[in-house]
Each structure stands twice: as C-alpha cells, then as structure tokens.
Fold this sequence. Notes:
Elements: E1 3-6, E2 15-19, H1 30-36, E3 42-45, E4 49-51, E5 54-56, E6 60-62, E7 65-66, H2 68-89, E8 96-101, H3 103-114, E9 121-125, E10 143-149, H4 157-169, E11 173-179, H5 187-201
Helix pairs in contact: 2-3
Amino acid sequence: MRHLFNKGRNEKAPVLLLLHGTGGTEEDLLPLASMISPESSILSVRGNVTENGMHRFFRRLAEGVFDEEDLKFRTKELHDFLDHAADEYEFDRQNIVAVGYSNGANIAGSLLFHYKGELRGAILHHPMVPLRGITLPNLENAAIFIGAGKNDPICPPQETEELESLLQGAGANVETYWGDYGHQLTQPEAEAARDWFQKYYSKS
C-alpha cells in the first residue's frame, strides 16, 4: 500500500496510523498527528480504492452504503500491511493507535471489529458502524475516542451512539466528543482528541 513512515523521537510512544477521508492522501492528517503526539512515529497510508478519481479505503454502493465484501477484503489487506510495516520499520506491532477521519475512521473501526489486539487505541473522527451482525472481539484493552457532529448529515447522532454502544459492549473504553457542526473536522474536535491522547498515552 502506498504510504509514508516518519520515525518519531520517542520509540515507546504509540505509532500513529493515519487513515485519510475520501479524496485524501497520506499527507492529509500529518498536521493532526503533529498536534496529537509530536514525538510519535507516523505510518500514514493511502487508500487502495478510487471512486471518481478520489482515494478511498474500500468501495461503497452509495452514500452511506458500504460494499461489505470489499470492506472485509480491504480490512484484511490493511491488517496484513501493518504486519509487514512493523517488520520493515521495526516498530512494536502491539503499540499502534489509529487516527482516522470519515472513510479512514471506518476502516479503522473495521480493524477493531475483526481483529483482537489489532490496535492499542483509536481516534475515530466521524465514523459510521462499519458492519452489523458480527460478534466483535474482546476490546477491553482498547481505548477509543470518537469525534462526532450533532448536525452531521453523513453520520447522524444515532449512528455514533450505536457504534459507541457496540464498542463498549465489547469492553472498549470509549469517550465521545460532540461538536455542534457537521461532518467536517474542526479545531476544537482535534484539540479534544489531543487531550484524550495525552490523558491515556503521555507516559508511554
């Protein structure tokens, strides 16, 4: 998968896995990563799917309707890539915190839904429920931040609340930030994600 890796100053800090939104690239979330954890190594990945020339991490059938088979395939593809990247760049595979926005948050959520111990934690900005009707792995060791908009037309509040409930039901420690805006990632939301990360991982 096309990506970039920037080695951080603190090898014990979680590696930030950056996953962009629809139409983005591996460069998009670098400023956010610098805000959240400036000492962390960064692994930023570009989605392998294109939709009308826009990069995505998996196909969809319509707005808000996922191609579930492709989602499962791409989730395993990303999982396998993380295994290889950990070997290539010599970082701790068990010390990854995903930072995803929109489509990137959805693929991060799918990693959590499918693989026990896949991520130490996750910052999910405006995610949806990636899949329904599956049994989630035990997530009691995962800490998850969800950033949501009260007026988000793509991820309505009930979608966020359902995702929060599913993750908590699997044992995850979930904290949700509610902004007053729509689907955009705002500065206050980014700052809330930074504060959450520092609370959980500043002593890493």
